[in-house]
Amino acid sequence: MKRTIKCKTLIAVCLSLLSLQIAGQVRVACVGNSITYGTGIENREADSYPAQLQKMLGEGYEVGNFGRPGATLLNHGHRPYTQQPEYRAALDFAGDIVVIHLGINDTDPRNWPNYRDEFITDYCALIDSLRGRNPKARIIIARLSPISNRHSRFQSGTRDWHDEIQQVIPLVAKARGTELIDFHTPLYNRPDLFPDGLHPNKAGAAIMAKAVFQFITGNYGGLQMPQVFTDGMVLQRDMPLNIHGIANAGDEVTVDIEKVKGGKREKVKAVAGKDGRWEVELKPLMAGGPYSLSVSTKKEKLTFQDVMVGEVWLCSGQSNMEFKLRGASPVPSKGGENHHAASSPFTPPLEGAGEAVPLRLYNFTRICPMSDIEFDSLTLSRINELEYLKPTKWQDCTSETAANFSAVAYYFGRMLQDSLQVPVGLICNAVGGSNIESWIDRRTLEFEFPNILSDWLHNDFIMEWCRTRAAKNIGLALKAGNNLQRHPYQPCYMYEAGIEPLDGFPIRGVIWYQGESNAHNKDAHAKLFPLLVDSWRRNWKQPEMPFLFVQLSSLNRPSWPWFRDSQRLLSQQIPHTGMAVSSDMGDSLDVHPRCKQPVGERLARLALTDVYKLPYFEKHPSAKQGPVIIDNSKFIIHNSKLTLPFDCADGLTTSDGKAPCTFELADEFGIFHPAQAEVKGSNVVVSSKDVKCPTAVRYGWQPFTRANLVNAYGLPASTFLIPIKQ
Prior knowledge:
Layout: H1 2-18, E1 26-32, H2 34-37, H3 44-47, H4 49-57, E2 61-67, H5 85-93, E3 97-101, H6 112-115, H7 119-133, E4 138-143, H8 154-176, E5 179-182, H9 185-188, H10 202-217, E6 234-236, E7 241-246, E8 252-259, E9 265-271, E10 277-282, E11 288-296, E12 301-317, H11 319-322, E13 359-363, E14 365-366, H12 377-384, E15 389-390, E16 394-396, H13 399-403, H14 407-420, E17 424-428, H15 442-448, H16 464-473, H17 475-479, H18 493-499, E18 509-513, H19 522-539, E19 547-550, H20 560-573, E20 577-580, H21 597-611, H22 615-619, E21 636-638, E22 641-645, E23 653-654, E24 663-666, E25 672-674, E26 676-680, E27 683-687, E28 696-699, E29 709-710, E30 720-723
Parallel strand pairs: 1-2, 1-3, 3-4, 4-5, 6-12, 12-17, 12-18, 13-17, 18-19, 19-20
Antiparallel strand pairs: 7-10, 8-9, 8-11, 11-12, 13-16, 14-15, 21-22, 22-27, 23-29, 24-25, 24-28, 26-27, 28-30
């Protein structure tokens, strides 16, 4: 059998060589392993990446497939490429262009752990040998295509060795003066194209072929900008602005920004690299406008009019952030569950406020709701293509556009607009029901929480409701045996479909309202939330980017007190974050409380204090947030009474004028008992006839709580459980 296979391989190579050497053609040699060969593709002769590349390049090129399944780059590996007939055939082919994709099989435990020190030397020797047959050859080496977490050895070594090899390959390119192409990035967010977790299918091979076609020809489809660049956009003030996009390789790109009614003009140029990418940096701009921004090459020009400069915030999360203004009530309804005091509209005193400034909205909408339905085949296909959120455009905030925008985000933006008197831009990409793991980038989860990626439809780290709803939505694919169908609740999906398309568009910070779809497991969320914050800060290259979030409200779900307290602790542990309490705005039966104005304005108070440092809040720190306990070492126990000192406690009182309620004290066995409480200045004194020596105190520890402690600004205290130091 082995002899037959070897003979067939040699015959195929000989036939391939006989068809080559056509006068005037550019010869392209595709050197590699099974991925180049086309393993797993039903009709690999027609659909492997070299075969598809041939169709793209056309008659002026002759593409040879010299892929060898199982081949290693390492000469001491288990199947060295340089000892295979495909290598000798590639030498004889003497390609004018050589594309090398090797290294995947070197992640085998037989190879990299033992011979990693030889990788650069062996790779350089391979390049030299190919150049020896054609000294003028254009050598292109590739960053490795992805290996999925579904690979059997992913966590035992493949993940880490694959990553180490990726870091070495650019050093090889530099050492031998070759070009470097990236097979990893265009495929990394498409795990659905890797049936076995390693070999791309026909569609994946097409992505590889397109990448090589563009790299060889320099044709990237002309001048392109991220989709968030439209007329009426808002650019972030007071920070260097990274403007970037795509153009054909070698094109000179000019970025020109000019204030319409006089003022400074800046013109910056860049040249698109071999990968088609270009970027420039504009100097920080002061708030104002309108500006005209043009991006041009010799053949094309894109012009964006009515551009403003001000404050830009991303507004993200799940349904309570997505909840539209048209369905919200600005203040608590009388006689309903939302009966506690709300923060009222608030604008700090301004000096010399000028004419009205715009509030502008960039509102993503979904191609379909997450209803309890089965998606059709077209919807499933678009989801796989990461097209769940529709492209949109910047719009002025009007009664019509605001009605269909996030209520929380609208009230947040309106308060910033009123208080700062600068243009404000809000980008909303929230998706109802989405879990936090869907918003975190793939690399972070692969290295920091890989178990959440495994068999996600049956993974207990993921809330059962999310898994059940997703299984219903993608039922058509599952019935057809497609277990790789994607869904917005799948880990990483919303990052890839909702964050990557923003392409690092400059923002000041993030407001986040999410957690309902993770409240089943506070401990997993406590690991995931810092990963989310770090993930987004890396994406925007802002390690201190403000991240303001909403604590879950009140609802009759038993895990919610624990989850709310976990969020409180996270707000104290992660730098440059802030938490807005919303428990007093809850509804015992509805996960979507309608009263959104106080929530949005509480987020704005955090921003105006910690981000913008308005003098008003320096003078009135309790206007930032509700009463909060920072240090339990300051607790005082006297005659079985516990005195709790609060910060942000000016005018400490209750929302209903009654005694503080829902306080509890734990006895020496950890059993909590109802307690009485009274306000004394900025302290609350708590006692219980059943507890002589308290060991812990908690407050608002009910799924739907009627906790009533507030400060003079009507801002509520958070749910908390705090041990008492003895």
